[in-house]
Amino acid sequence: KQEVTQIPAALSVPEGENLVLNCSFTDSAIYNLQWFRQDPGKGLTSLLLIQSSQREQTSGRLNASLDKSSGRSTLYIAASQPGDSATYLCAVKGSQGNLIFGKGTKLSVKP
Amino acid sequence: SAVISQKPSRDICQRGTSLTIQCQVDSQVTMMFWYRQQPGQSLTLIATANQGSEATYESGFVIDKFPISRPNLTFSTLTVSNMSPEDSSIYLCSVEEGGYGYTFGSGTRLTVV
């Protein structure tokens, strides 16, 4: 059974710092991995999608990497801003076809 | 990518009543997914809704409690029936589009009192 773990559970940083969020999964047989952002009480906003054949994806200040063989992904946020404060969720699409989510990393960026 | 309109955005309901949540997609999609997010937890898939057939429910979720309709390729509803405080959660619908991955609605924040 696929399990997704995100570390750390919470993170507080001063504005301007570069930071890394980690995601690990137990079954490397995935189709893709997707990073989402969730603001309190709201839905999910897709940030980056990495197909199983890809190593990384970039969008603006965000860069996500995927090492399928070791079951790991990282989300790198450059020059963090207070507006980046949110919960970041990692999800993998496995052989069953549905998404398996981690519990998220709650990020707080202090001005 | 697809745009999903979900409503209501939030509601406070009395125990024992039912609430129907609606999701409208701006393009035709084969499958729609319904998720629950309990307080402080991550998302759990409730069921997958295909147009023209019965929804497929995940372990721990039953049709009598969470009936789903899928009348066409752009619309679906999820009803939370006979609610109790344990049903207080965020409910989200989602679709998958090839190169874009999964897109989610804005969520329905349900509080049962």
Considering DSSP H and I runs of 4 or more, what fraction of the residues of chain A is helical? Answer: under 10%
Mean pLDDT of chain A: 95
Work out the largest interface and the residue count of each chain. A-B, 19 and 22 residues
The 3D shape of chain A can be described as: globular
Largest sheet descriptor of chain B: 7 strands, mixed
Give the overall pLDDT of chain B as a whole number: 94
| Strand runs of chain A, count | 11
Computed Rg of chain A? 13 Å
**Rg estimate of chain B, integer Å:** 13 Å
Query: Unreliable runs of chain B, pLDDT <50, ≥5 residues?
Result: none
Span between N and C termini of chain B? 37 Å
Say how many strands of chain B there are: 11
End-to-end Cα distance of chain A, whole Å, is 41 Å
How many H/I helical runs of chain A?
A: 0
Shape of chain B: globular
Share of β-strand residues of chain B: over 45%
How much helix is in the residues of chain B?
A: under 10%
What oligomeric assembly is this protein in?
Answer: heterodimer
Secondary structure class of chain A reads mainly beta
Write the layout of secondary structure elements.
The complex is a heterodimer of chains A (111) and B (113).
Chain A: E1 4-7, E2 10-14, E3 19-25, E4 30-38, E5 44-51, E6 56-59, E7 62-67, E8 72-77, E9 86-94, E10 99-101, E11 105-110
Parallel strand pairs in A: 2-11
Antiparallel strand pairs in A: 1-3, 3-8, 4-5, 4-9, 6-7, 7-8, 9-10, 9-11
Chain B: E1 4-7, E2 10-13, E3 19-25, E4 31-37, E5 43-50, E6 56-57, E7 68-72, E8 75-80, E9 89-97, E10 101-104, E11 108-112
Parallel strand pairs in B: 2-11
Antiparallel strand pairs in B: 1-3, 3-8, 4-5, 4-9, 5-6, 7-8, 9-10, 9-11
